[in-house]
Amino acid sequence: PCEPPCQNLPALNVGTATSSGGPSTVAATGTSASSTNTAANSTATSSGGAIPGPSNSSSSPAGASAVATATSSAAAAGVASTSSAGHQSPYDLRRKSPSASHDLCTWSGQSGHHYQSTSIDGGCYMLPARKRPRRTYSTSIDTCTPSAAQYLQYEMPDEVLLTIFSYLLEQDLCRLSLVCKRFNTIANDTELWKRLYQSVYEYDLPLFNPEPCKFLFVKPEDSDYANPWKESFHQLYRGIHVRPGYQDRKYRGRNIAYFNTVQAALDYPDERTTATGAAAATAGLTPTTISSPGVPALANAGAPAGLPSNAVLAADEGCVVEHPGSLIFLHAGHYRGEFLVIDSDVALIGAAPGNVAESIVLERESESTVMFVEGAKHAYVGHMTLKFSPDVTSTVPHHKHYCLEVGENSSPTIDHCIIRSTSVVGAAVCVSGVGANPVIRHCDISDCENVGLYVTDYAQGTYEHNEISRNALAGIWVKNFASPIMRENHIHHGRDVGIFTFDNGMGYFERNDIHNNRIAGFEVKAGANPTVVKCEIHHGQTGGIYVHENGLGQFIENRIHSNNFAGVWITSNSNPTIRKNEIYNGHQGGVYIFGEGRGLIEHNNIYGNALAGIQIRTTSDPIVRHNKIHHGQHGGIYVHEKGQGLIEENEVYANTLAGVWITTGSTPVLRRNRIHSGKQVGVYFYDNGHGKLEDNDIFNHLYSGVQIRTGSNPVIRGNKIWGGQNGGVLVYNGGLGLLEQNEIFDNAMAGVWIKTDSNPTLKRNKIYDGRDGGICIFNGGKGILEENDIFRNTQAGVLISTQSHPILRRNRIFDGLAAGVEITNNATATLEFNQIFNNKFGGLCLASGVQPIVRGNKIFNNQDEVEKAVSGGQCLYKISSYTSFPMHDFYRCQTCNTTDRNAICVNCIKTCHAGHDVEFIRHDRFFCDCGAGTLTNQCQLQGEPTQDTDTLYDSAAPMESHTLMVN
């Protein structure tokens, strides 16, 4: 025998257990456990957890009572333990040896095997039965006689214990877990707790309540708890249940209240407050020692003497602070007709397997289905279906009632609910009044016969991850200074507008997906001023965003695309901010501003729209800046019908039609824009288009950089206009305009074209490096050209032709690769005080019959290559090739049957056509066709002939754009 007797087995860890007769305390020896174990053990001792017993729902069987009695005796004998580190199978427990850190005592048994026991404070701890020989126990006082407690701890097979424990309910299991380490392990088996948990709460996954108004389902494998089912049981055990048919059932080992109706469960906390207070006074306890009224705790012991059986000591007083209100579980069923007015911090949550919300239905036909009023600061409703189904033929008015109503000074949380309303008036959800500040998340508000969600009268709230769809009117209404926060909602397929803010409604809308609504995705009206950030607004059957009747709003970093009409509409004195959005692939335009609309349109990426990227009309006056407007199937910016606006620092490029159109009395101001790479014109003024074009960079268009026609009279100042395939600036058909201080260079045709009765003014421009002429004026063109520098152009610096009559004053025309000024084809001009110098072919060249007004000009240091070639007996083609048109006498040969379209220079007439019948035609612009090899006879003054087309008198005429007009 060992000393002292084995019956006095000390516990390995501290533990406290109370029998039905009262509390009993054991001595502490205090072995340490891991932090995970400590948390799990704290769970077991504070409120434990509970597993469902077998599927029978009546009280615990007699066997369970016997085990509980036996284990209570063991606890009274001082045997208790806490959980081992982490969850493990109970079948591994009996193979473990005691800690080697303790002193060991040994004795020899009958078989000669050594038996080890751990000495702890004078006691001994027996090894498991499998590691010691079987022996006959003596009844002698000196013999270690196995007691009932010892047998339960060491002798009974694990399978038997596990089977017995499966018949127990949560409170008995928690008591058993305090008996010894072996019981603790088996009583914390995850499968036991899973079955017990699912019989009580019916959920497929553990549900955790980490903080007020927050309930989370977590997969067991993703949980941080060793036994997530037990931990969930522990967190939810304070709840009461609405489960019809269960109200009269009694359970030993369970402290749960059941009710048949929701209202009875809501009333229960008030009824319990008085009873609990009286019980506490009887027991001499302060109210803070007792669990929250109506919120029983899963405790480590039975009820203290003098208290009702369900008023159990709370294991953690903080529980009252963390969860201030009662918790009510609604089990599967259709609850009709109950009028639920919630004015306290109750948590009301559905409980069912599968899709929880679909299994629990609350429905009313009059008044509101659920109403939150003042006092519901931390109330919660989750995982259920709410329906409002009034009789549409009823004479009882219900326009002020809703499926869900949140009133003044209430801030409930509505979570994972399905909300439906068949009312043709009102809304499914109404949040109204000062201090109304709910959290509505993960809800489905769909298929309602009026508005889905209505926020009004200074209400606020946070609305996240909701599905709002297929409602008869707007998905969301916000009005009358309401200011909700709406994030990551899905608002779609409404039979009206997606979100409608009006009558001074406000709000913050972030990352919502708004699409396929019959009218606009987002509408702002009548002083409303929402902030809309990072939303996707697309596939609207009308448009994307519609701001009208003095609407405001900030629309920032949204994606607005694929709408049937304009991506953004702004009208009737509205003044929103449209910033950093992507606006693309619209079936019509990108941004459409009309009817005296305003707005700040900046830093947007606008592309791929079927009509203009931005359209401004009918005296609208927005600010458009820092945008990229490109790859439109139509034009870039279209300003018409007296449109205005400040358009600055945008990049407009690669559009199918004009980069910017300005027409019909419009007067915008365009400054510091880059307008380039278009498939037609850069900036197009027509039909009395006016305005200012200042400091822009306009380049690389297939047509002209700028066109002005039909009465248009813009101011074009300080721009760089270059790389046009049809010239720099084309003024025609009665066009006007002031072109001042521009740089016009490197254009494939003339830097400036003036024709067909147009009369612009050009002052102090630099027109240079053209691949054709500098300025070409023909077909009755006019204009005043003053103080311009015209230089290094391939053809004439200024060509004046065909009945044109411009005025040239104080210009400098120099370094040209042909003549300085050429006047031909019955044109005339006034030339005053110009300087014409260092041009290759000559200074001022006049065709036959031309008599300009010439006064005070300085013509000097020109290279006169034509005169030199003629005097040297060379063919004129040698200096001109077929790209230049030097002015000189040209002839035709009747013997060779040449036409007026063929020109022969005087030296070729003398040499190549000597003896032929020739005639003088006129002094004009041409190159020699004889030298070019286009005649029958080979030129004797040239080498190998170069084939070429007929000589042209003028530079090639510019193409006029055929830009479509869209009103």
From TrEMBL:
Name its pathway: Protein modification; protein ubiquitination
Q: Provide the protein's localization.
A: Chromosome; Nucleus
Regions of biased composition (Low complexity) lie at 14-64
Give Gene Ontology CC terms: chromosome; nucleus
> Per its UniProt record, what Pfam families does this chain match?
Beta_helix, F-box-like, NosD, zf-UBR
Q: Name one GO biological process term.
A: ubiquitin-dependent protein catabolic process
Q: Is this entry keyworded Iron?
A: no
Q: Where is this region: Disordered?
A: 1-64
Query: Gene3D superfamilies, from UniProt?
Result: 1.20.1280.50, Single-stranded right-handed beta-helix, Pectin lyase-like
According to UniProt, the name of this protein is F-box only protein 11
According to its UniProt entry, this protein's organism is Lutzomyia longipalpis (Sand fly)
Q: What is the lineage of its organism?
A: Eukaryota, Metazoa, Ecdysozoa, Arthropoda, Hexapoda
